[in-house]
Amino acid sequence: MRAIKPKYLMSSLQRHLMPTSYQDWDREVVPLWFRHRLDELHRQKREKQARLLTDLPASCAQALHTHGIWLKHNALPCEFFRRLKFETFDYFVAQRDRSKRLLANWHKSESFTLPLNYTQLLRQPFLQSAITHELIPKPLQFAAGRKVKPTFTLEAMAQRTPSIQFNTQASNIPSFELEHNAHTPGATALLFLEEITPQDGALFYIPGSHRMTETRISWEYGRELDYTTLEDEEDLPGTSLHDIQDLNLPALLPLKVEANTLLIWDTTGFHGRLPSTSTTKNAHIAHRLALRADISTKPSARSN
Q1: Are 173 and 166 within 8 A, CB to CB?
Q2: Which one of 61, 205, 239, 298 counts the least CB within 10 Å of its CB?
Q3: Cα torsion at 295, 300, 302, 303 (round to 10°)?
Q4: Which candidate, 243, 220, 226, places its Cα nearest to that of 31?
Q5: SS3 sequence, 201-255?
Q6: End-to-end alpha carbon distance in the chain
């Protein structure tokens, strides 16, 4: 019989000791096991960030630490970026045309991703150089709190559908979802090869929302209670602006994204994409290419 490591044994015991019925949970008091789980994850993240601090410019480290996001325009030299964009577009089209799945769904989906690895990029010198450029991995590793090699993909993003649906509440808050993940502290980098306009559906981030405060831990616990009432994980509700009102966070920040912009954000913070305001019927045709890199500190059973 294989021995169980102490931390896995404790996790197993916690699951067995947790109340089996939703009615047994106390919504007003965050249990120690839940608090410890989040505190430990983010404590490890902060310790690893401290060891990586010397590898970053002070302004970059400060922005990621304080706001959870770093944006840099004109990230790569102009001539390098021009060749990179041409090579990336050529590579993506070639890979797309070989994939029956991509071709079948080309006009139906909002985004497509292709994994990038060195064996595929032997004839793509600029694309290969871009994903190894120190400008991308170092801030990404710092925001995630882990010094490992990121996973890179090539992403084609279509603008959102032109119609904007509003809630029936008096506040008229748009019904788009916020992305966040406190249970797997990580980071995402996006190197944009084309401009993303507000009409396409601007990306946004809520500055400072990556911090694991007492209020955020209580909020995460409330979400955990809500999940216990659902029988299927596919029924997990999305997070809206209305859901985070009690956190007293700053207003969401729409991001100005030009070509050759590098964006890195902490995925614990609330982020996402605003609905498109375009009135063009063929809104899904205008795809925006971007290099995407992801890194996380620890795998999680559930990703928000």
Answers
A1: yes
A2: 298
A3: -10
A4: 220
A5: HCEEECCCCCCCCHHHHHHHHHHHHHHCCCCCHHHCCCECHHHHHHHCCCCCEEC
A6: 35
> Is 89:228 a contact under the CB 8 Å cutoff?
no
Strand, coil or helix: what is 192? strand
Q: Would you state the structure tokens that stand for residue 2, as one six-digit string?
A: 């294989």
Q: Which two tokens stand for residue 183?
A: 């249970």
Q: Which residues contact 171 (CB under 8 A, 6 or more apart)?
A: 242
Give me the half-sphere count of Cα atoms (radius 13 Å) on the Cβ side of residue 177.
8
Q: Are strands 69-72 and 253-254 parallel, antiparallel or unpaired?
A: unpaired
The pair of structure tokens assigned to 279 is 């009135």
Confidence of residue 8 (pLDDT cuts 50, 70, 90): very low
Q: Token digits for 219?
A: 């909020």
For 119, other C-beta atoms within 10 Å of its C-beta total 5
- With beta carbons less than 8 A apart as the criterion, state whether 272 and 241 touch: no
Q: What is the pLDDT of residues 48-65, one digit of tens each?
A: 999 999 989 999 999 999
Sequential DSSP letters for 41-57: HHHHHHHHHHHHGGGS-
CA-nearest of 42, 77, 72 to 56 is 72
The tens digit of pLDDT for each residue in 146-203 reads 988 899 999 887 655 444 443 434 444 445 789 999 999 999 999 999 998 777 788 9
| E strands, the chain, in order | 69-72, 111-115, 151-158, 186-192, 203-205, 253-254, 261-266, 271-273, 287-296
The number of CA neighbours under 13 Å toward the Cβ of 69 is: 20
Indicate whether this model's pTM tops 0.70: yes
